[in-house]
Design brief:
single chain; alpha/beta; Rossmann fold; 8-stranded mixed beta sheet; SAM-dependent_MTases_sf; Methylase of polypeptide chain release factors
Length: about 270
């Protein structure tokens, strides 16, 4: 019988393995903008606004950027960057500003922290699908009551992103985000689907049906192209909702290149 894959544990029981570590300034601006907009009320209501950035990479720049963006919503937010690689932790410590911004060695066990919000981006791509679900469970078990995990992937410069929002009850929502002028068709985002979905982009699966329908809406919205790619994306989102997909939000967020749906619409 094949052994069930397990998350590796480091010397200090940090669960996981180091990522490639590639990162760029402003790479995660789209998910940060979504969190500061969609989750602003959630952050304002949190009794202890601790946020964890898990697996920030070779440099702490995206953690520093997230802290600054969240602080515009809630000035007393505390951000903790976690990495398994000690050299990366040391790089974070060089720019730390405790207690509002700090860095620590840790993995999916969250180094004992109990955050209300956790961002884990470009972390699970190197794991198997089974391991990714195990990581979801591990992270959620360490969250503060009512906490949320935002887990996803993006390209190297942050123009194509997808993510899942999770609670203790399981996945809640799925978001596609891009620079509309940087795609030929919306299904270009398929290569950045989160681990839970990337192997499900085949006929017969819901996420494949979503991308197929969104491409069709994009084609139908071609007359809006003279008004710019954002206008075409907004019309595509409207048409997608018209087709019966549970598209959330409104034109204000669609214009940012986002489309968020209930997770049930794409669940494998």
């Amino acid at each position: 019988m094949a052994r069930k894959p397990r998350l590796a544990a480091g010397r200090a029981r940090a669960l996981g393995v180091p990522t490639r570590g590639t990162t760029n300034p402003n790479r995660l601006r789209r998910v940060d903008r979504w969190m500061t907009g969609t989750l602003s009320g959630f952050l304002l209501d949190a009794p202890d606004p601790l946020v964890v950035d898990l697996g920030y990479g070779a440099t702490p720049i995206t953690t520093v950027e997230m802290a600054a963006r969240l602080r515009a919503v809630r000035p007393d937010v505390r951000v903790l960057g976690l990495e398994i690689d000690q050299d990366r932790v040391d790089a974070g410590k060089a720019v730390a500003a405790p207690p509002l911004l700090d860095f620590r060695r840790g993995g999916f066990e969250l180094a004992g922290a109990r955050p209300v919000l956790l961002r884990a981006f470009n972390v699970l791509r190197q794991y198997t699908e089974e391991q990714s679900f195990e990581a979801w469970d591990t992270m959620l078990s360490r969250m503060a009551p009512g906490g949320l995990v935002v887990e996803g992937t993006c390209d190297e410069i942050g123009r194509r992103c997808t993510w899942v929002t999770l609670s203790a009850d399981g996945p809640l929502r799925f978001t596609l985000a891009c620079k509309p002028s940087g795609i030929d068709v919306p299904s270009d985002l398929a290569e950045r689907l989160p681990k839970a979905l990337i192997h499900k982009n085949v006929p017969g699966e819901r996420v494949h049906a979503l991308l197929t329908d969104l491409d069709a809406c994009w084609a139908t919205a071609a007359p809006f192209a003279p008004f710019g790619p954002r206008a075409r994306w907004v019309e595509s989102a409207r048409l997608l909702r018209e087709r019966g997909w549970p598209v959330l939000d409104d034109r204000r967020r669609w214009r940012l290149g986002e489309i968020t749906l209930e997770w049930a619409a794409v669940a494998p």
